[in-house]
């Protein structure tokens, strides 16, 4: 998506360790116009997939997922990182490994929000090693629902999580797919 | 806002301890249509206030804040509950007390996302004792910016945080203001 690629080139900051900071428009401050446009683009890409629900993971995935849900006119669910007192009822639960923090964390989704027969589109802000999407796929599998595919704002192609999912037959769409950030220069895949 | 009140009566669940569960449409599963409509209503209410930025707090405030930012065509910022490796630069920091969990937590906002001259509208899903909004007001004060007001989806009027803020001169708008939930019966303020 041209508008997102241009925004990344203009406002993204590459830090050592292949970190791409996009906090000025995607995951700390949020450019609402751009996010809603991204949602419409994801809706266009998955228009023929009969998607019944959007699933994301807190926190950074929520904005893109909401933009997508608004465009597709389906409900959105976000997996929660911590059990809180306000969560009751039975829950799907899965473990996700975070490379950024070097730890595992558990995410939960109340069972009644994903049902057998749902065709679930996974949405997130970043796709690198794919661990977060794998966790969401595990939750969808526990619900005996199907995965329509995965849509992410930015895929770090050089970390191969996306290609591994594609090799397993999952449709993965990235609005911006970065093949390299060597020396701070961002190269998008054609 | 009629549509939100009706949704609360239809799908909200009152639990012991004055807890209102709205996870089926507001803060776990999200009704995107309703959220975007709520954003447009908040934009209408604060239309004359020259708002330059929306500020909320992760996680549950993000959806309503994004709907508002999209309707007002201004950027949205969410205060983060934990420092992560991806946050760099100087930050505003404040402590918020959580009654639900009985603990204090720290939220941070990168300084460059709120500037002197900004007129900031605070947005959140719930207003009960007002501690989260007070934390956001503290961040706005640290930035020498001004508070345009606060807009929340649901105010628990019987917990008085909203009325205390109003008494201090802050404009507080609730799309649904609940005066009582005694015996599980939800009574809205006229």
Task: Kindly summarize this structure in a few lines.
Chain A is α/β, with parallel strands linked by helices and 190 residues long.
Supply the key terms.
homodimer, 190 residues, alpha/beta, Rossmann fold, 6-stranded mixed β-sheet, two-stranded antiparallel sheet, 5 helices, 11 strands
If you had to describe this structure to a student in words, what would you say it looks like?
2 copies of one chain form a homodimer. Chain A is of the alpha/beta class and 190 residues long. Chain A has one domain (2-188): 3-Layer(aba) Sandwich (Rossmann fold), CATH 3.40.50. Chain A contains 5 helices and 11 strands. Chain A has helices at 2-11, 32-45, 61-72, 131-142, 161-167, and strands spanning 13-15, 19-21, 29-30, 53-57, 76-79, 91-98, 103-110, 119-127, 146-156, 172-180, 187-188. Chain A has a 6-stranded mixed beta sheet with strand order 5-4-8-9-10-11, sandwiched between helices. In chain A, helix 2 (32-45) crosses helix 3. The radius of gyration of chain A is 16 Å and the shape is globular.
Tally the helices of chain A: 5
**What is the end-to-end distance of chain A?**
11 Å
Hey, which two chains have the biggest interface?
Answer: A-B, 40 and 40 residues
Q: Would you count the extended β strands of chain A for me?
A: 11
For the largest beta-sheet of chain A, the strand count, sense and barrel status come to:
6 strands, mixed
- Compressed to H and E, one letter per element, the order of chain A equals HEEEHEHEEEEHEHEE
The 3D shape of chain A can be described as globular
Quaternary organization: homodimer
CATH topology of chain A: Rossmann fold
Strand order of the largest sheet of chain A: 5-4-8-9-10-11
Level-1 CATH class name of chain A: Alpha Beta
Instruction: Give the helix/strand class of chain A.
Output: alpha/beta
Q: Helix share of residues of chain A?
A: 25-40%
CATH architecture of chain A: 3-Layer(aba) Sandwich
Mean pLDDT of chain A: 94
Low-confidence stretches of chain A: none
